[in-house]
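Please fill in the sequence for the structure shown.

STRUCTURE ENCODING:
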């Protein structure tokens, strides 16, 4: 399996784990007699557990190698898929989702670490852009496939399908040649020392925290989209898949645009333009709301397109700040992104006067945080973060 395809499929594990069964959330609410908040716990707990296990897999891969940690993580994910498929209550589903999250965390963390291992500089940024394009296909197709599956089969088959797809990735991991030639040493205290060193890297942490806030509207939309479209606008599960696909299309086109724009325009300038794009679309959604599903989809497309443009640049900018302990640094970066995302998923489940407007407010916050950090670095430190 080509490295680019393997890295893309590894990075797609979080989307694969969530987007495909989003159309089934209203079905589970009716089947088990639970509220939106209770149903969303299967999303929130997944991302919280996912975030915690990211911090485990990164240092383990620095110590024992990328390949063995990857093989163990994917196998654990497949077990989690099986447990989700046989769940008979929301409690059992949430527990099974923790197992699934523990495995998915290995795939997601190591996709960034492997990108750092295998590619350098601008080439890495370009590869991250291509991964973003391929990665967007998963959330674009997954809700549609999930909705289609609900038309002909039980929701349980959604998780069975996830397990089968993970088997394909497991084959690619088996064929992967271990990229590390030097391994870290020591036990738990040594790992904590490495985390302390990375956490003390001010530029890395400032950029990581700022760019992680940018995902607030994206994850809030993922968690709230079934309630917004199916319950709020009254569209069918299958039509919901189309609207959600437009959102994913924005990520894909944005990532593709990034690979083209950065050839002739500086990465920092493209990053600023994309952040202003998130700010403008978020402000429009926050102020004017979304009276129709078409308007909601159009504004979310603008937000996700801009996030898609910025993500390869911001990820590469963060990774450029570290030279050693790449697995641990990748874990912190991915952990922060998904921990913030889990929080926004929990917030969107609350009883807001208008959930579309709340997503817009999160987009404004998500754009202002990195814009402020970048301005401070340029204004007071006199050079661009590369």
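FILLED IN BY: designer on duty
SEQUENCE:
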């Amino acid at each position: 399996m080509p490295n680019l395809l393997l890295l893309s499929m590894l990075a797609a594990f979080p989307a694969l784990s969530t987007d495909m069964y989003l159309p089934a959330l209203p079905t589970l609410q009716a089947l088990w007699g639970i509220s939106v908040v209770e149903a969303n716990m299967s999303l929130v707990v997944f991302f919280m557990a996912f975030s915690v296990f990211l911090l485990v897999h990164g240092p383990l891969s620095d110590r024992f190698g990328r390949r063995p940690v990857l093989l163990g993580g994917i196998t654990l994910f497949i077990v989690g898929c099986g447990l989700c498929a046989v769940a008979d209550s929301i409690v059992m589903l949430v527990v099974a989702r923790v197992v699934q999250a523990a495995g998915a965390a290995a795939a997601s963390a190591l996709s960034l670490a492997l990108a750092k291992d295998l590619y350098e500089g601008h080439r890495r940024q370009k590869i991250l852009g291509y991964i973003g394009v391929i990665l967007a296909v998963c959330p674009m197709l997954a809700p549609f496939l999930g909705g289609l599956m609900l038309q002909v089969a039980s929701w349980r088959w959604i998780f069975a399908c996830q397990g089968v797809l993970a088997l394909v990735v497991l084959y690619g991991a088996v064929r992967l040649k271990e990229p590390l030639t030097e391994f870290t040493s020591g036990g738990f205290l040594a790992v904590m020392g490495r985390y302390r060193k990375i956490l003390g890297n001010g530029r890395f942490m400032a950029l990581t925290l700022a760019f992680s806030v940018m995902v607030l509207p994206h994850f809030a939309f993922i968690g709230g989209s079934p309630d917004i479209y199916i319950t709020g606008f009254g569209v069918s599960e299958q039509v919901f898949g189309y609207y959600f696909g437009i959102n994913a299309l924005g990520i894909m086109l944005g990532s593709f645009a990034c690979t083209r724009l950065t050839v002739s325009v500086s990465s920092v300038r493209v990053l600023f333009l994309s952040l202003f794009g998130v700010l403008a679309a978020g402000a429009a959604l926050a102020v004017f709301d979304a009276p129709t599903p078409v308007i909601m989809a159009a504004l979310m497309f603008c937000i996700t397109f801009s996030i898609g443009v910025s993500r390869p640049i911001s990820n590469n900018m963060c990774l450029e700040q570290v030279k050693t302990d790449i697995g641990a640094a990748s874990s912190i970066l991915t952990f922060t992104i998904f921990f913030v995302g889990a929080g926004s998923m929990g917030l969107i489940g609350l009883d807001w006067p208008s959930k579309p407007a709340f997503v817009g407010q999160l987009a404004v916050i998500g754009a202002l945080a990195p814009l402020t950090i970048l301005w401070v670095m340029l204004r007071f430190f006199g050079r661009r973060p590369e």
